[in-house]
Amino acid sequence: MSGKSESIKIEASASMSNLGSGFDILGISVNIVSDEVIVEKRDDKKIIIQDIIPSDFNIPTVVEKNTCGFAVKSLLDNYDIDQGITISIIKKLGIGSGLGSSAASAVAGVCAVNELFSLGLENKDLLNFALEGEQIASKAIHADNVAPCLFGGVVLINNYEPINIIELPFPDNLYFTLIYPDIEIKTSQARSILPKEIRFGDAVFQTGKTAGLIAGFYEKNIEIISESIEDRLAESYRKHLIPYYDEIKNVAFENGATAFNISGSGPTVFAVSDNYATAEKIGQIIQEFLYGKSIGSNSYISKVNPNPPRAIG
Ligand code: ADP
User: Fold this and answer.
1) What is the pTM of this model?
2) Multiple choice CATH, 175-302, 3.20.20.450, 1.10.10.60, 1.10.1020.10, 3.30.70.890
3) Of all atoms in ligand 1, which is nearest to the CA of residue 69?
4) Which of 22, 42, 68, 307 is the most buried (most CB within 10 A)?
5) Which residues, in sequence order, are CB contacts of 17 under 8 Å at separation 6+?
6) Looking at the predicted structure, is the pLDDT value of residue 123 above 90?
């Protein structure tokens, strides 16, 4: 991509954070497009968010209140670039989905600026700017959607101050069925219902499962990964925000899932299996179950997406 281009369009993927036991420290990128961001050079020095499509999500178009706008502005400021830009954001998923849509906007924005101005920055250099943008939505630094969206694959955040990430290997036949019911859960709301303290026994349980999850990824072993997708920090509180959570979880296990949990703070939930046919069946049966309860949903099947965002125009 040459620095002479006047505009660029970047596509960024959805991501699932937590994965059960990896609360706030683990995220994976999935093969579902979350956001497209178009950045165009202007003749003046303004940064403008021109369009957010669809408009009925009521996402702020004020640069400082938008995850993409803020991330892009901090990147431009940091490199003393005073050329103006026009930003357009196409949201392919709903917001408050538990699939990292606010993070995807921020990531796509910084990747677009990097390309458009030929900054030559690596993903690790872009990470902090995208995190600053995501902070607008989550009110705190959270990397568990931003990092997998930016790097692709499975990402462990092993330190927050300063931020440090480790990219993990993963098995090729790890299938996720994602079910996104037609409801919205604000991450901030899902955070506020969590307790301030946890019991010692739960901390020990969680640590064992988190360690198992990391070991399972390194060993590329779906059995160990599945056994380790359990959570005592958030699931029992957040499941009440997701209609029929326990019933859906049972249906998933009855139909061949090897693990099940909440994606991020929900309402998207995911089931794990080791083949496409099982993943597809789980999706169909859960959607039918929800439909029977008058709840619409979308279902996706995805392996881990190994790729960072890409230019599509
Ligand atoms: P998600 O899981 O979809 O990222 P969050 O609840 O974490 O949902 O964030 C959504 C909140 O962030 C909403 O209040 C929304 O208005 C705000 N927001 C600001 N900028 C964006 C953006 N570019 N994309 C999505 N949400 C944004």
Assistant:
1) 0.96
2) 3.30.70.890
3) 23
4) 68
5) 24, 26, 27, 100, 142, 144, 145, 148, 263, 264
6) yes
